[in-house]
Every structure is written in C-alpha cells, then in structure tokens.
Design a protein that fits this description.
Blueprint lengths: L8 H9 L12 H23 L4 H8 L3 H17 L1 H6 L9 H20 L3 H6 L3 H22 L13 H28 L7 H10 L2 H11 L3 E4 L2 E6 L2 E4 L10 H15 L1 H6 L4 H7 L8 H6 L3 H13 L17 H9 L3 H11 L5 H14 L2 H6 L16 E2 L7 E2 L2 H15 L2 E2 L3 E2 L1
Antiparallel strand pairs: 1-2, 2-3, 4-5, 6-7
Helix pairs in contact: 1-3, 2-6, 4-6, 4-8, 4-17, 6-9, 8-9, 8-10, 8-11, 9-12, 11-12, 12-16
Length: 440
C-alpha cells in the first residue's frame, strides 16, 4: 500500500473477506451500517493506492476472495431500496425524523459502492471476476445513463439549498437528487471499463449491450447533450470532483474526462471485431452514429489519436446501406438480481418501511453521537486531502489554485484579484462558517 495508509494489509483482507449481501429488510441495521463503514474505508484505501501507483491490493483482494459479485448485488439492492422503500417511507404519517443522518447513509451507500467499482474496474481481471453479475451491472449502468440523458433534456441537477430554514426532508431529497447525478457519472466510467473487456464478454452480455440497450446510440445522445457541462453567467463549467468548476479559457478546447470516457466506450463498441459482428447498423443507428462526425475535429483527434480510426469508420458508414433488423433466434442469459429482489419483496414495501422507521431510522441521541464519532475516525483530514484527484482550481477563473479563503478555508483561488471578484458570490457561504472551516 502507499505511504499514507488508512488500513493495514491484514485489516483490508479481513474487511474484504467479511463483505456479504444483506436482505433488503436489514438495510440500515447495525450490521449493515458496519459494512457501510467498512466499504468506505476500502473505498478510500483503493483511491489512495491508485493515486500512489504502488499496486492496488484492494482490487487484488476483491478478486482473490470473489467479492466483486457481492458488490454488484449490494449496489442493485440499495438502488431498489431507493426506488421502492424510500418514497413509501417519506409518505408514512408517523415519519417525522429528528435527524435524517441514518437515512442519508443509506442513500449514500449506492455512491460508495459505485465509486469503489469505478476505482477497481480499471483492471480487466476485476471485470472478469464479476462473472454472471456483469450483465446485471450493464443493466444498472444503462438505467443510470438513461436517467442522465433524460435529465439533460430537463435542465441541470438542483443546487444544494443554502437557506437555513429548509425542512430536513426537503434537504435530504435535494441531496438524493444531486447524489443520483454523481452516481450516473460514475456509472458512465464503469460502463467504459466494461467495454474495455469487450473481447472477453459473453455473447449474451454483448447482445444485451448492443441489441437490447443499443448503448452506442445512448452514448451519442450523452455526447450531444453533455450533461456534465453548463454555462453559468456566460462562463463554461464542468462537473468534476463532486462540484461544478469553472473552465479556464485556455483549457476549453481540452477534452474533459467524461467526454473521454464516452469516446473510448464508443470506440470499443463500434470498432472491436467482437462488437462489430454483433451490432446491427439499422437506419436509425446509422443516423445517430453519423452525428459523431460533427464532434471529430482535428483538435479532438490530436488529444485521442485512436479516434482517427473511428472517423474512418464513420466515413465508410456514410456510404454503406443500412442493415435490416436481425431476426435471429438467440438463447441468452438475462440479469437476475433485480428481478429476484423484486420477486422476493413484492407487496412488502410498506411493511419494510414501517419496520425500518421504527428499528433503524429513529436512533437515540447516544446512538447518533457514537455514529458521528465513528465517522470522524474514518474520515481523517489527511486522508481526504490525499484523495483529491488533482490540484484545486480557482473558484473564479478555473486555473490551478494555491491560495485558500483565509476565513472559511473551503474555497480556493489562484490570486488575490480573483478572490476579490468572487467575494460577492462566496460571501453568503463564507459568513456561515467560523474561522478555520467549522460550520457555525
């Protein structure tokens, strides 16, 4: 492991060995919360190892102990809880939580698991070790990207409320929607890593990606709308590192990381021999794919030279006749995790919500203090700073920053001039924070 260690090798091995799938009814229980904390520690250690480039033992442990399928099952279980139980929970007459932190932890669990998968799926052996659950993960990514594409037509995700009198549940629902946006972006990266393994995927999985979900066309739609970029006050911003960041004028022609993930996924799905043999280029698919030609500029290809091959493929596609839809009889596997969970818990959603409200989401003050103490020990400041993917950016112009706001210690600037220009925007958040970064 790297120089900065959150877990010793023996601890990491024990935590990975202990990973297991929980019934939906136990979501939020003491055992479930302990595993959530363990996953957070594994998540942070995996990021530290990847940043240090000194081997990635968390990834190796997950493969060795066969725990990647367990992570996929946990991911889909908490997704179902959010869709089936959380809305019912919010409508219960006696649902008046004094503290929403326990529920927030459940909502955050999905982000924790997908973040860990994003970190380790860079390695092909992790994808292969997912076994049959890779198809369930493909379906999961498709659901998230479909919602992301739909959101891009409705506008940007909501900003966090800064008013002091926002009801706790309203704030929680806003946080859940913001989290859903970030989860979808992580799912995009996971899907791209799966396409890196297209030569070793089963025919059923390839058919699911190309025929059932038509992922190439969905990726074109995402590239068109680019939901991870926006303009605010005439300034270009990109969503990166969990926040919207200004893009400096000198970097606006630079391909963003998320755009790069889409292009690489498209390259893998359209140009690999295995995928080309399975993908039916119908009239609709041809029309969608040819939209890519407008984006393939010389500047873009200079940054990702492999896209020259994709440009050649599109030039050939423009002259080719579209193919009729295939009507082959194909016997294939189908994903089973979502359907099994839905079948096992059908008709139990309200009873589950009532049970969890009484036993999981109504903690005493003593329980909350203990939980807060455990999280404070997990989220060490030195670990969090080491996990930062890159140097901080100026809140005003987007350039690399080396100076912090001296009062709140939260916002970064490249120079005094930018700090002065940004003060009117930053003041409201800054005055709510005591010197040294503590919330008042």
């Amino acid at each position: 492991m790297g120089d900065l260690e959150l877990l010793l090798p023996g601890e990491a091995d024990a935590l990975v060995r202990g990973l297991r799938s929980f019934p939906l009814m136990e979501t939020g229980s003491a055992g479930w919360n302990q595993q959530h904390e363990n996953l957070e520690k594994l998540n942070m250690q995996a990021i530290l190892d990847a940043t240090a480039s000194e081997g990635e033992p968390i990834q190796q442990l997950l493969v060795t102990h066969g725990k990647v399928p367990t992570l996929v099952r946990e991911l889909i279980a908490v997704e179902m809880w959010k869709q089936k139980v959380f809305p019912v929970l919010c409508k219960l007459e006696d649902f008046k939580p004094q503290n929403t932190f326990p529920i927030y932890m459940v909502l955050h669990h999905e982000a924790s698991v997908i973040n860990l998968l994003e970190t380790v799926f860079f390695h092909k052996e992790v994808c292969e070790s997912a076994q049959d659950t890779i198809m369930d993960l493909v379906d999961y990514c498709h659901r998230k990207l479909t919602l992301l594409a739909a959101r891009s037509g409705r506008g940007e995700p909501p900003e966090e409320e800064e008013a002091e009198d926002v009801p706790p549940m309203k704030e929680l629902q806003t946080q859940a929607e913001l989290m859903e946006f970030e989860i979808a972006l992580k799912a995009l990266s996971v899907l791209r890593y799966i396409t890196d393994c297209v030569d070793s995927l089963s025919l059923s999985t390839l058919s699911r990606m190309l025929s059932t979900h038509n992922l190439p066309c969905l990726l074109v739609e995402l590239l068109e709308h680019s939901p991870w970029t926006r303009r605010d006050g005439g300034k270009l911003q990109q969503f990166e590192g969990g926040r919207w960041q200004a893009v400096a004028a000198s970097e606006q022609q630079k391909m963003s990381k998320l755009d790069g993930q889409v292009w690489i996924a498209l390259y893998n799905l359209l140009l690999s021999p295995e995928a080309r043999a399975r993908y039916c280029l119908t009239r609709f698919a041809k029309g969608q794919l040819l939209k890519l030609r407008a984006f393939l500029t010389d500047i873009l290809i200079d940054q990702l030279p492999h896209l020259a091959d994709l440009q050649g493929f599109l030039a050939h596609l423009a002259l080719a006749e579209p193919q009729p839809p295939k009507k082959d009889l194909v016997f294939e596997q189908i994903p089973e995790i979502w359907e099994r969970l839905e079948r096992e818990n059908k008709g139990k959603w309200k009873a589950m919500a009532k049970h969890q409200l009484e036993h999981m989401f109504s903690p005493s003050e003593h329980d909350l203090r203990q939980q807060a103490q455990r999280w404070a020990e997990t989220y060490r400041l030195d670990v969090l700073e080491a996990m930062a993917p890159e140097r901080p950016r100026c809140a005003y112009c987007g350039a690399e920053a080396s100076k912090r706001c001296s009062r709140c210690q939260n916002e970064w600037y490249c120079c005094r001039e930018c700090q002065v220009k940004h003060w009117e925007t930053h003041r409201k958040a800054c005055v709510q924070v005591a010197p040294g970064g503590r919330v008042k």
